[in-house]
Design a protein that fits this description.
- This protein is of the alpha+beta class.
- It has two domains: about 1-70 and about 175-340, Aminopeptidase (3-Layer(aba) Sandwich); about 70-155, Peptidase M42, domain 2 (Elongation Factor Tu (Ef-tu), domain 3, Beta Barrel).
- The chain has helices at about 1-10, 15-25, 120-125, 140-145, 175-190, 210-220, 265-280, 295, 325-340, and strands at about 35, 40-45, 60-65, 70-75, 80-85, 100, 105-110, 135, 155, 160-165, 170-175, 195-205, 225-235, 255, 285, 305-315, 320-325.
- An eight-stranded mixed sheet has the order 1-2-12-3-13-16-14-15, with helices on both faces.
- The chain is globular.
Length: about 350
């Protein structure tokens, strides 16, 4: 399964090569050309087969980001401990005692903190600070550690992909579903032919500011764009009656607005028409927090109509995420139909 290979890959922001190589191998027979730009974006083109009814759009961009949140080594202590900084939005609370792999050699390590037995009472009730954490590789001193890693090396969680056996939602768990699931959906979309040039853009550095999408959108210069994401799913029990952002197993999530973009109403209408036509379960993302590549894409050049479709994923930006394969498949179906319907132009 492509999602499994993508989830297991090492690819924090600015270090997406392994992910890019997996994707290129998966899509090479379905594209006409590709290139890798200065920021590491993989821009793949599937040329138009036929012509659209209204002659618009001629160029459509669909983006999914390759990078994941991670850590970067900033200092090696004399005892061999590795100090680190966050790459992207990582909550310190999810880091304690988690296993990671570091650098090109994939050196294993464990994130450590003072044992609870040695903590003062007030320390036990406080959120840990990144400055108090370290990675333990089992080294005796700095010289040993420096033979294995160096300052500037990346670290990511060492979680491996697995199916949740007997899950009625066909759930799977793994790391980096934000946004390796979007990459998997986009790879599937390339197996179809469309009446416009489809620019499948696998972007870099989304987690640190939508950077890859900004330059990729300028280069592709599309008439219309979609961003595919793995989004927040917080359907766990709550103390008060609050609607979750999304629910796992209830289909792809359509965004109306987040902090980075107000989605083009015509594209929302298009997506809803497709979902109704094929009876595809779907939902609206019920939070306006967070941002996606669409936030950078829609501002490129003179402005680009853009929409966001996401696969709900529990526990994103943590060592282990969970999603439903049914939601993934429904997202592929919805986006395939939306792209084909777009061959007749945007809804009024």
């Amino acid at each position: 399964m492509l999602l499994e290979r993508l989830s297991n890959a090492f690819g924090p922001s600015g270090c997406e090569e392994e992910v890019r190589n997996i994707i290129l191998d998966a899509i090479k027979d379905d594209i006409d050309e590709h290139r890798v730009d200065a920021l590491g974006n993989l821009i793949a083109l599937r040329k138009a087969r036929g012509s659209s009814t209204k002659g618009f759009p001629k160029r459509v961009m669909v983006a999914a980001h390759m990078d994941e949140v991670g850590l970067m080594i900033t200092h090696i202590e004399k005892e061999g401990w590795l100090r680190f900084a966050r790459v992207g939005g990582v909550d310190a609370r999810v880091l304690l005692a988690k296993a990671v792999v570091i650098g090109d050699k994939r050196i294993p390590g464990v994130i450590g903190i003072k044992p609870i037995h040695l903590m003062r009472e007030d320390e036990r009730t406080k959120m840990p600070r990144i400055e108090d954490l370290y990675i333990d590789m089992g080294s005796c001193d700095r010289s040993q550690a420096e033979k294995l890693v160096k300052v500037g090396d990346y670290a990511v969680f060492s979680t491996r992909f697995a199916a949740m056996k007997e899950s009625p939602l066909r759930a799977v768990k793994g790391k980096a579903f934000d946004d390796r699931v979007g990459c998997a959906v986009l790879a599937e979309l390339l197996k179809q032919s469309y009446a416009f040039d489809l620019y499948a853009t696998f972007t870099t550095q989304e987690e640190v500011g939508l950077r890859g999408a900004q330059v990729a959108a300028y280069a592709a210069d599309p008439d219309v764009a979609f961003a595919l994401e793995g989004t927040v799913c917080d359907d766990m029990p709550k103390k008060r009656d609050v609607s979750p952002v999304t629910r796992m197993g209830q289909g792809p999530a359509i965004t109306i607005m987040d902090r980075s973009v107000i989605v083009d109403k015509r594209l929302v209408k298009l997506l809803l028409q497709c979902a109704d036509k094929l009876d595809i379960p779907h939902q609206f993302k019920q939070s306006v927090t967070g941002g996606t590549d669409a936030g950078a894409i829609h501002l490129a050049r003179e402005g680009i109509p853009a929409a966001v479709v996401s696969v709900p994923s529990r526990y994103i930006h943590s060592p282990v995420c969970m999603l439903s394969l049914s939601d993934l498949e429904h997202t592929v179906t919805l986006m395939t139909e939306a792209l084909h319907r777009l061959e007749g132009g945007l809804p009024e």
